[in-house]
Amino acid sequence: MNALFSVTADAAAPGVLDAGLDLVSLLLILAGALLCLTAAIGLLRFRDVPTRLHAATKPQVLGLILICLAVALSLRSWPVVAFLVPVVLIQLATAPLSAHMVGRQAYRNGTVAQRDLVVDELAESRETPPAAGG
């Protein structure tokens, strides 16, 4: 009777592990969705370019990473992981770059309030345009 009981207990363990991984993936999707929602609300509610850029990059990227991790845990497949890793890496590479470019252009256009800047490292570049040669 003990041998039969141990076999059924071992067979039940993968079901418990699957349920636990599904619960973790559910929590990760909820956390990722909340972070993406806060990013969207931040884009609508914040007034100036630097704070909007912060809202567009930081929580949105973390939310995407959490959602990708949840999908990988939920599907439990190596091809899915191999697909999601480049998605996350490309997002990590492009979000800061695009935010930098938008922030730089906002500074050049004068839409960034100069009084709000603590340190203005680009003040010299406003005096002499980069293409002027001197």
Automatic annotation (TrEMBL):
Q: What is this protein called?
A: Na(+)/H(+) antiporter subunit G
Keyword Nucleotide-binding among UniProt keywords: no
Q: Name one GO molecular function term.
A: sodium:proton antiporter activity
Tell me the organism's taxonomic lineage.
Bacteria, Bacillati, Actinomycetota, Actinomycetes, Micrococcales
Q: Which keywords belong to this entry?
A: Membrane, Transmembrane, Transmembrane helix
Gene name of the encoded protein:
mrpG
Task: Report the family membership.
Answer: Belongs to the CPA3 antiporters (TC 2.A.63) subunit G family.
Q: Name one Pfam family in it.
A: PhaG_MnhG_YufB
InterPro entries in alphabetical order: PhaG_MnhG_YufB
Q: Which residue windows are transmembrane per the record?
A: 23-44, 56-75, 81-99
